[in-house]
């Protein structure tokens, strides 16, 4: 009879990051994007919060990470130094602050406009180190310095 080898505990080479994202009223924020960046390797991983505002990364190499949380209509939240250790789970919960809603403006033009970059009539006096030139814009109350 051959004796069985002794039981060996498996060593996990990864750490985990988990947390929940909420708004100022403590309501869950589903659909928020969580981005973790390993500061020594530059590797980036992303996740999206579930319907309860929760997220989890279970396969992070030990090291220091930057965690960025983004969601439309909220200010981004960031933690520049989250240390992940093998065989451990680190929690990062945060409340997002309501941010300014920045609408996207699309500018279209059916005709090209020409921008005049040189004055049409200019007189400069007195000549010297610091010369102020006046153009037709003076009539309109605008003085251009060149």
Structural account:
This protein has strands at 15-22, 33-38, 44-48, 54-60, 63-70, 77-84, 89-91, 94-95, 122-124, 133-135. It is elongated and about 75 Å long. The protein is 0% helix and 36% strand. It has 146 residues and is mainly beta. The strands form three sheets. Strands 1, 4, 7 and 8 form a four-stranded mixed beta sheet that branches. It starts with 14 loop residues before the first strand and ends in an 11-residue tail after the last strand. Strand 2 (33-38) and strand 3 (44-48) form a beta hairpin. It contains no helices and ten strands.
End-to-end Cα distance, whole Å, is 100 Å
Could you tell me the radius of gyration in angstroms? 30 Å
Query: Major beta sheet, specifics?
Result: 4 strands, mixed
Structure annotation, total helices? 0
Low-confidence stretches: 101-125, 128-146
Helix fraction bin: under 10%
Strand content: 35-45%
Provide a short characterization of the protein structure.
The chain has 146 residues and is mostly beta strands. The protein has strands at 15-22, 33-38, 44-48, 54-60, 63-70, 77-84, 89-91, 94-95, 122-124, 133-135.
How are the SSEs placed, and which strands pair?
Elements: E1 15-22, E2 33-38, E3 44-48, E4 54-60, E5 63-70, E6 77-84, E7 89-91, E8 94-95, E9 122-124, E10 133-135
Parallel strand pairs: 1-7, 1-8
Antiparallel strand pairs: 1-4, 2-3, 2-5, 5-6, 9-10
Features:
146 residues; mainly beta; 10 strands; 36% strand; disordered C terminus
């Amino acid at each position: 009879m051959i004796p069985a080898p002794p039981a060996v505990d498996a060593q996990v080479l990864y750490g985990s990051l988990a947390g929940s994202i909420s708004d100022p009223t403590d309501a869950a924020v589903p659909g928020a994007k969580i981005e973790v960046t390993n500061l020594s390797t530059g590797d980036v991983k992303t996740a999206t919060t579930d319907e309860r505002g929760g997220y989890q990364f279970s396969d992070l190499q030990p090291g220091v990470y930057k965690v960025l949380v983004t969601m439309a209509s909220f200010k981004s939240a960031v933690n520049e130094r989250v240390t992940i250790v093998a065989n451990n789970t680190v929690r990062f919960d945060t409340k997002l602050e309501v941010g300014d809603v920045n609408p996207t403006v699309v500018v279209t033009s059916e005709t090209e406009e020409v921008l005049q970059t040189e004055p049409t009539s200019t007189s400069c006096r007195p000549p010297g180190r610091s010369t102020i030139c006046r153009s037709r814009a003076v009539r309109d109350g605008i003085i251009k310095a060149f």
